[in-house]
Specification:
Length: 304
């Protein structure tokens, strides 16, 4: 008698958003030929513990705070696949692990959510804007220097509840999070990319596997979305070149189409913000990253 095929154990954080993203990964896997069984394994991370301890504030404290425990469980064989928000995953490779697949990216933009009418322009002078990101705070200051960015932790539901309670005037949050949670509420404005560029890898879901799991890697590779991978790898290469992690004040968005790759980025340094908009052949990614790094670290605003 044939033995049943073991289920693929997907490791995920236990927040509602993380579970929604793990469900997207599970659906993609079960749609494959042979329909492998999938089970979810919830794992608490350092970032989750910090958020529970200090839900009312405090900037993020370290790179990898939402991914390290998942990677450890993967290396220990407690799970078969770790599902990550790619923007949370450090750019430095982890020995013994690889990115087996990156799902097609969602909406990479950021949202402004506020109880005031008129969106960003309708906010009163000196309004308090809650965000977990120095990247968002830096870009916000470029368009409304009067606004006050205040740090916030906690999951999406906690942040939305605090907004409704009047703890601050507005909230900045990833559009993909709103979409994946099915949040429906008034006062949600998707910010144009001319105002707010996303974190490298934002809205992309990554499936990480052990490098020696050759059969599983081959199966997972079939759900990889090549244009998304090319784009987010360029963004992460730029982040690595600038020496930053998920806490870096870098906004970057790459798009791949017709053998070309376009990279838009903004970076805060001691003398302000530098911006770039570059397009090169997809085969010239290394040259693209080198040019972007040089322009972004220049003191003047850059464009090319």
């Amino acid at each position: 008698m044939d033995q049943p095929t073991p289920a693929i154990r997907l490791g995920t954080r236990s927040s509602r958003l993380a579970l929604a993203q793990a469900d997207l990964a599970a659906r993609a896997l079960t749609a494959l030929s042979g329909s492998p069984r999938v089970s979810l394994v919830e794992i608490r991370t350092k970032g989750d513990t910090l958020s529970a301890r200090r839900p009312t504030g405090g900037w993020a404290t370290g790179d990898g705070q939402f991914t390290t425990e998942l990677e450890r469980a993967l290396l220990a064989g407690q799970i078969d696949v770790a599902v990550h928000s790619l923007k949370d995953l450090p750019t430095a490779p982890r020995d013994g692990l690889v990115l087996g697949a990156i799902l097609e990216r969602g909406d990479p933009r950021d949202c402004l959510i506020t109880t005031h009418s008129g969106g960003l322009n309708g906010l009163p002078w000196g309004a308090h804007i809650a965000t977990s990101s120095v990247r968002r705070a830096a870009q916000l200051a470029a368009v409304r220097p009067d606004l006050v960015a205040i740090p916030i932790r906690g999951n999406v539901d906690t942040r939305l509840r605090r907004l409704r309670e009047g703890a601050f005037d507005a909230l900045l949050i990833a559009a993909a999070a709103i979409d994946r949670l099915g949040v429906g509420m008034d006062g949600v404005r998707r910010l144009p990319l001319t105002i707010m560029l996303p974190a490298p890898g934002q809205a992309a879901i990554a499936l990480q596997v052990r490098a020696d799991a050759t059969q599983l890697r081959a199966r997972i590779a079939s759900i990889d979305h090549a244009p998304t991978r090319l784009a987010v790898m360029a963004e992460r290469a730029l982040l690595r070149a600038l020496g930053g992690g998920c806490l870096s004040p870098l906004g970057a968005l790459a798009t791949a189409r017709d053998g070309r790759i376009r990279l838009r980025a903004v970076f805060e340094h001691d003398e302000g913000l530098s911006r770039i908009d570059l397009t090169r052949s997809a085969g010239d990614v290394e040259l693209l990253i080198a040019a972007a790094r040089n322009l972004l670290t220049a003191p003047a605003l850059a464009s090319a």
